[in-house]
Amino acid sequence: MVGAVARHEYTVIGPKVSLVARMITAYPGLVSCDEVTYLRSMLPTYNFKKLPGKMMKNISNPGKMYEFLGHRRCVMFGKRHLAREKNVNHLLLDREKELEAFRMAQQGCLHQKKGQAVLYEGGRGYGKSQLLAEINFLGQKEGHRVLPLTLKEADSKQYFYAIQTLMAIFFEIDSCPACYRQEYLHKQLHGMVEEPLHCLFNDLFFVKVMKAVAF
Ligand SMILES: Nc1ncnc2c1ncn2[C@@H]1O[C@H](COP(=O)(O)OP(=O)(O)O)[C@@H](O)[C@H]1O
Ligand SMILES: [Mg+2]
After folding, report:
1. Which atom of ligand 1 is nearest to the CA of 94?
2. Which of 38, 51, 68, 177 has its CA 20 to 30 A from that of 139?
3. Are 161 and 78 in contact (CB under 8 A)?
4. Could you report the per-residue pLDDT of 99-125, keeping only the tens digit for each?
5. What is the pTM of this model?
6. Best substitution site from 85, 94, 96, 130 to test ligand 1's pocket, by max atoms within 8 Å of Cβ?
7. What distance in angstroms lies between residue 127's CA and the mean position of ligand 1's atoms?
């Protein structure tokens, strides 16, 4: 800190400042950051692009450098995760009416083969997650396959996000590497959908079509 009492000036000094000065010169016009910043930012990797290494004066090893691309959203289906598992020591109180609505829908679906949806609405702490954990438990107990999915408000901005994610979980292509997605999809659709029509599902599941390698 230098200067008179009435006027203070603050100067940041140190190796990071020198590095930043070199980065600005090496990557003009870009918002660049070093690897520590990249890793500690807690932002998704698709918000960044790796930059080519550059010689920097007086800095022997600047490490990996990244360009910050801004807060982009990657259009993709979601991950499977159930927020909560049923806790057997925790009784579910006063939810008969809500569970009955689920049972009715389940009956309609299983016996009348009609698609059903039950919507539970309530503010924070109302007991939604607890109820869903119970429904998940009941469904599995009866031998049904349950596809749990948590939606965030931001997901509403992507058209068909929920149905795409549910179908991706159903076909188990959400958990497989992108390069195997096409193969998985073929296997799952086999016998259900004619093979020439399989490609119609590529867009829905963000299938990256493998390029043929020439030898
Ligand atoms: N029917 C219930 N019986 C007993 N405890 C409940 C019930 N519903 C919710 N709780 C408890 O209340 C708290 C908040 O419920 P939670 O399901 O997390 O709410 P939400 O998901 O709607 O925000 C949790 O600790 C949960 O265990
Ligand atoms: Mg909740």
Report:
1. 1
2. 177
3. yes
4. 999 999 999 998 998 889 999 999 999
5. 0.59
6. 130
7. 4
